Amino acid sequence: MKILLTGANGYIGMRLLPRLLELGHDVVCAVRDQKRLSVDEETLKKIEVLEIDFLSEVKEGLVPKDIDAAYYLIHSMSSSTEDFDEKEALSAENFNRYLAHTRVQQVIYLSGIVNEEKLSKHLESRKNVEDILYQGSYHLTVLRAGIIVGSGSSSFEIIRDLCEKLPVMITPKWVLTRTQPIGIRDVINFLTGVLGREDTYDQSFDIGGKDILTYKEMLQQYAKARGFKNWIYTVPVMTPKLSSYWLYFVTSTSYKLAVNLVDSMKMEVVARDNRLQELLGLETHTYLEAIDMAFKKIEQNLVVSSWKDSMVSGRFQKNLEKYIQVPKYGVLKDEKKMKVDDPDAVLKNIWRIGGEQGWYYGNWLWKIRGFIDKLTGGVGLRRGRTHPDKIYPGDSLDFWRVLLADKKGKRLLLFAEMRLPGEAWLEFRIDKDSVLHQTATFRPKGLRGRLYWYTILPFHYFIFGGMIRNIARART
C-alpha cells in the first residue's frame, strides 16, 4: 500500500514511519523542510519525501495520484495562543484539495477526545478539523486520544520535569480533572491497526489506556514509579495565566504551549467506549507500564522523537535555510582555532555538545544564561537534546537550533533561539589540516546589541577559550 504520511518529522510521525516500513508499505513523507527529516540514510532510501506547507497555496500535481491511504498528523497548538485554530482549519482544507486529485481511499486522523459539551479552544479546533476532513473525497477514520505518554512526548516531559524538580507542589485545581492517558506504543498500534480496515471507515473512535486518573494521581504515580514521594497541595486561586507561567518556568514547555495545555487541562478527557480496542483485538497498557516503557527507551538512548525538536518549541516557524549563510559584514566575532591530534575523536565531542554533556566549560555560567533567558520569555536550557550523540538539522540543542550537521564535512552550525538584541551563530569546523575552528558570530540590532556584546566579552574569553580546549582534548 502506498501511504502519504503528513507531519512525518513530528513526534507521532517519527514513531509511525518505521512501523509502516516494517509492515512493507511504500511511504511518502510530507514535510515543510526536507532537511529536517531526522532519519538515517538507509531509511531515506526506502521513502519518498515531499516538501509541502499545508498553510501555503496549494500546488497542483505535488502529491502522487497513486496514494492509497494517508495519515493526517498536522497540528498547530503550540505555534500560537490566538490563531492556531484558523491555521489548523486552513491546513485541513488544503489537505483536502491536495488529495482530491488522488485515488486515496482512507485518511486516518489522530485527534483529541471531545466528549464534553463545552470544549477548550484546542479541543474545539481538533473537532473542527475532523469536520473538515469528513468533507474530503475519501473515507475518514478518526482516532481520539487523551494524554499520550512516551519518551519525548510533551505530556510525559512536563510530568517528568514537575516531579523531578518539585518534591512539594502548590497546584491549581485543574490537577483534579480526570483524564485517560495512553502509551505511545498503544497509539501506534491503533494507527496501524485501522489501516485498510473498511469496518473503521467514516467513523470516530476514542482510544485510551487502562487507567482513568486525575492529573494529581498521574504525578503521584510517576513519583512512586521513580522511587520517591511528592507532596501536592491544591489551591483554588491560581488563574489560568498564573498556571501557564507556572508550567513555563518549572518545565521545558514553551509559554504558547503552556497556555493551550492549561486551557485543555480543565476539560475531562475520558474515552466513552472501547469499541475499537475490541474490534482490533488490542490490549492497552496501564499508565505505570507506559512510564516504564518510556524510561527503558531513555536509558537505552533509543528516543526516536521529541516534541522539543518541533520548530514551534523555539523562535523558528520555518525557513532554516535563510540562516545557514553566516553573515560576514556588520557582525562581531569570537574566533578560536586549535590543532588537534585525533579529528575523529574531536568530532565525536562536538556531536555530544549540550544536554547532559554540557558545553565543556563553565556549565554553571551557561545555566545562569539559560535561567535569565527563561525569565525574559526565552526557551532557556531545559529543552536539552533528544539523543546524546546524534544531531540532525532542525533539532533543538538547549537554547540553540541546529542549522547544519554535516559529519562528513566535519561541520556543525547552530543558531541561537535565546532572547538577544541581535542574531547569533555558533560554528564548529575541522579543516583538512586537522585544525578545529570555533566561531561565535553576532549580528547586533542597534546600539543595544553592541552594548550587549561588549558587556559579555570578558565571559567569552573564558567560556569559549575553555570550551575549545576541552573539546580538542578528544576525550572519548
Automatic annotation (TrEMBL):
Pfam families: DUF2867, NAD_binding_10. Keywords: Membrane, Transmembrane, Transmembrane helix. Coiled coil: none annotated. Residues 7-127 form the NAD(P)-binding domain. It comes from the Bacteria. The chain crosses the membrane at residues 451-472. InterPro entries: DUF2867, NAD(P)-bd_dom, NAD(P)-bd_dom_sf, NAD(P)-dependent_oxidoreduct. Signal peptide: none annotated. The keyword Transmembrane applies. This is Epimerase. It comes from Muriicola marianensis.
